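Model: Ready when you are.
Researcher: Fold this.
Model:
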Amino acid sequence: MSATDPALWGYALVLAIGTVAGLVSGIVGTGATIILLPVLALVFGPKAAIPIMSIVALMSNFAKITSWWREIDWRATAAYAAGGIPGAALGARTMLSLPPRLVDVALGTFFLVMIPGRRWLAARNYTVGLPLLAVGGLAIGFLTGIVVSTGPITVPLFSAYGLVKGGFIATEAASSLAMYISKAITFRTFGALPTDMIVRGLITGSSVMAGTYLAKRLVERLSIASFQRLLDVVMLLSGCSLLWAALDWR
């Protein structure tokens, strides 16, 4: 393969953007998919992008877990995963036969509404307990199986549980890891994740992991207020990108 081969440049682009995506995701706990998915679709094709991203998500969450291991709330993780695992499997199976456009519209709208909604809940000290985390995991797991990214939905859920900064990032990652394993297994079972896509996912995921590990020092220096503002920015970008994709009728 020569240096001018488009495939080589394509991988170089994926690795560069993957590192940036990992850095952003490592700082606010979500957002890697929104940044990386368009590049994966460009380089590998839109049909391959979502299965590849399921492998990338596994590696990204593993990096967050190992970065903030001591701050994980394991009770919250177990409660969320209890609903998320079966939800993701059901959603992934549904995704293989369901056009996700209407779901994208609903999720995009939800993300935008939850920017002021999360602040409204925080101002009133509204909190959720473990049972609601399990219910939320089931619903979010199902949606995660259908669409490529629902990460920002977990922002108000885990914030209402009382987690911020490293604790939020690590617990959300640990909770989501089991969900993405379930999703990847379902894709593999139904032939949507062949070996070549797994390899591409591993290559891409390595760059995301590198960016995630770099982000830890930045998170440690952030104030809680700055962290919350960054979460709002990610939700805004996520909502707008989903609505844009859903309304692009070409």
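Researcher: Now this one.
Model:
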Amino acid sequence: MTETTDLQQRDDNGASVAVDSGPIIDIVPAALDTVLGIRADEENPESLGLRIEITGTRGVDYIYDLAFDELANAAADDVIAEIGALSVIVPAATVEHLRGAVLDMPTDPDQGGLVIRNPNRPDPLEGVELNLEGTVAERVQQLLEQQINPSLAAHGGFATLIGVDDEQRVFITLGGGCQGCAMSRMTITQGIDRTIRSAIPEVIEIVDATDHSSGENPFY
């Protein structure tokens, strides 16, 4: 990984001031080389930073906008991270949602572009009013139908409830565009897990029933 060497914000007079709050985003060397190569084709490349901004949500993922921007145009509350030979500009509203993320190359070399691997996930229940009734299994099913599967549809996928055991562990599988995806387990543990456990406190664990390495599944 490329080490983030410095974080800065600008004061009211436009002067840079250090910000000591830990790294916001890291960039793997191959991705850094890619970005610097693209920037080299721009006019006055040394004056440009890479702006990374979260512009919205799609299901259990954030939507990102990456673009080169003049460093001189950075807002007073933007945070500027110096990563190798690249300045990364992060708007204040994006900082905490991005912290700990990594800008990386895609796993599939034929995919092209860059990917952001972010340990943070949006709250799918924010601003949503739910009316869940019945047993734990019935409420999980309602939550899947009302909130989770409409969100996963953005990825061409869906989640299916396999069952709930006596310890209130919920067993779920993914299908469609999520099935077999390398990110499917992360989707369950970080997105679906948070959604179900926030809405149904009795649930103690979400188990990915398609992960056979975790042991025998009582619902098979």
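Researcher: Key takeaway?
Model: The first helix runs from residue 29 to 39.
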